[in-house]
Amino acid sequence: MRVISFNKFYRKFNILSLILIVISLVFLIFKGLNYGVDFKGGTLIELRTTDKTNNISLIRDSFNQMNLGDVSVKKFGNETDFIVKFEKQNSNDPEFIQNIKNKLSSSIGDVDFRRVENVGPKVSSELLKSGIIAISLSLAAMLLYIWIRFEWQFSLGAILAIFHDVIITLGIFSIFSLEINLSIVAAVLTIVGYSMNDTVVIFDRVRENLRKYSDIKIFDLTNISINETLSRTIITSVTTLLALFSIYLFGGEILKGFSLAMILGVIFGTYSSIYIANPILVALNVSQRTIVKEEKD
Amino acid sequence: MLYFSKLRIISVIVFTIIFSYFAISNFVKFDDKFFSKNINLGLDLQGGSYLLLEIDNRPVITQKLQAKIIELKRYFKEKQITLKNFSLKGDTISFETTDNEIENVINILNDKESDVNTYYPTYKSHEFDVLEDGNLFSLNYSRYGLVLLKNSSLDQAIEIVRRRVDEVGTNEPNILKRGNDRILVELPGLDDPNRIKSLLGKTANLTFQFISQNNEESFGTEKLSFEDGSRDAIVSKRIILSGDNLVDAKPTMNSQTNETVVSFSLDRVGAKKFGKATSTGVGKQLAIVLDGKIISAPSVREPIIGGSGQISGDFTFQSATDLALLLRSGALPAPLNIIEERTVGPDLGQDSIDAGILSLFIGFLLVILFMIYKYRAFGLIANLALVSNLFLLIGILTLFEATLTLPGIAGIILTVGMAVDANVLIFERIKEETKNEKNPIIAFDAGYTKSRTTILDANITTLIAAFILFFMGSGPVKGFSVTLGVGILTTLFSVYFIARLLTSFYVVKNKDKEQLL
Questions:
Q1: φ, ψ at B156 (rounded to 5°)
Q2: CA Rg, chain B, in Å?
Q3: A235, A185: one domain
Q4: pTM for this structure?
Q5: What is the pLDDT of residues B48-67, one digit of tens each?
Q6: Contact A115/B345, CB-based, under 8 Å?
Q7: ipTM of the predicted structure?
Q8: Which of A15, B8, B312, B416 sits at 20 to 30 Å (Cα–Cα) from B482?
Q9: Which B residues in the span 465-484 are in contact with A, Cβ-Cβ below 8 Å?
Q10: Does B166 contact A at CB distance below 8 Å?
Q11: Number of structural domains, chain A?
């Protein structure tokens, strides 16, 4: 079998990752994330018009006249489908949505509200809080698990790889102003699981090889391990990506953001388990003694 | 690892068949009751409304505190202890007493058998926290006092909400408590929640009060406006009758005026009160007040003693029906605010199901083709495991009547993509082992054994993510975590029982072939 020298590029890719992380962090800090109504509060309406001549600016104008705060209108799949989001949500007025529908019908013709989401400020801040807690908890749980199963050098490598994936995925969402909603949180958590999964497979092999070869330095040992597990890494990424692209392309508009986040996560997760997790083992100078010492305890 | 006992083979087959049967029962109708279970579709797939209501308990607290002041006054008067300067500021009752009574008042309020400040042994707490500063006392709801108050108002509210929703007659509504001041209402199949929203948005506090002619009523007066906003009226604070005394209400047509009215009938107590008040008040205007707004104020022409009456007030048939419904179901203890609403129309739900099934199908097909291309015969084995995995997953979701949401479908597709991972790990390991081991049975055995910890590690990490999502997530996202989590379990089953069984058959049969994998 041909052996690819992944380890030759550790430094180069580490620099690349570092740049990507810095860019992501800069965007996350200064531009922030485009929170959907789940986390920001407000109203989302997915509507379908019967009149095909309706365009975005016409719909935006009609909404702007209703005094609803910041209004954003986007096409949603079909030519007749639109997503409208605005800040205002009125929990005390049960007729709020009905009134909007009536006004809209008189200005742009018959509309069908296919989906309405109306989230109050209290609920949205709770959802945001529980989303952040969920992600932090799962990171902590992973850390704990990997700590129990491996030595601390490995845990550090795996956790940094996960942070890398999550930060860059969120960074891309920030750069392209893609919407963050509840399902993106679910996607991020799944990314965390997937990235961990990928890293664990390689680390298991590294550990096995550490026992097997006492004379090979960790720099080359990681490369051997990556190569030995490479076909598995590729096949699993390919099948997972096949499933995800199928959701992205055919699963409907609602799942687009979710599947996109997952696709990015799988790509970066696969990359990071090779180019983040392993160089950290090298940097920490992991050797046979690291695991033998542990096993004597 | 490749050896299977007969018993094991049979149990694997039986297990797989039973769950596949459940899976299929979603699509084919079986006659027997036990097997014809169905996966519940989430609101995002079948369409419907999700409403989260929050009780605004402030009016209840104020009301209870006002009642408490009256109770305290009466109680201490009976004990001949002078209390004075009662006041209610925010949520604090304060009063003063004379210096020689301080000890006495403290004892009464902090007594575990106290009649005015109930002690709850289970919480080791009184209803009110008592603070004293010289002869100045202040009373606040204790933490548990407040919890109990909120719980009881939630219990009342949920009962009323249930009645109102039932009256509208929606299909299998789901009404649940959330915390101690929220109610979750799920209304499957309802695409226009406006009627229910406006019904739930009303407290429906109905009172009958006389419009005061001179401003010197002994009970005091208040200024209320008419519902249509046209004018105001000064109304006596004395409540003749409240909605509690109503036993029935329905929309009817008044044959004389030809307008829609709500006619009601009263219980015995109510009828007596109403009769007495109307006989003394002939000629006066009787205001019918709903949630602080006057609906109408007809003049009393003659005493109403039959225990029934009519409410008129420019109703359409719909609004009269709704008012009658509200009156029948009773008043909420406090106003409810809708703090979250998610409504999906039925056609969008169907579109989502179609898209979900299409993408599942395509994703499944792509993965299957890829596996055959990669592993030939073993790809076929992995695929058979994958198919039974899918059946098992859907079967288990059906058996437990889990709720399938759109992200849940995505979870199934993702499971399909990730499920082959375990088989890939095993096959790749076997490939490595065959390099050094000529005997295929030993090589296969070693492949299974050596990959096991890796597979467990890899799956446990995903399972952790799924667990956390399940406990932290809500609604659709929860559905995702369920399919993801159950998917991991069925994957492990299909890999270690089904795929391994098939592999062992294949290897034993073809052990003399040159290259198996």
A1: -65, -45
A2: 35
A3: yes
A4: 0.85
A5: 999 999 999 998 899 889 88
A6: yes
A7: 0.90
A8: B8
A9: 465-466, 468-469, 472-477, 480-481, 484
A10: no
A11: 2
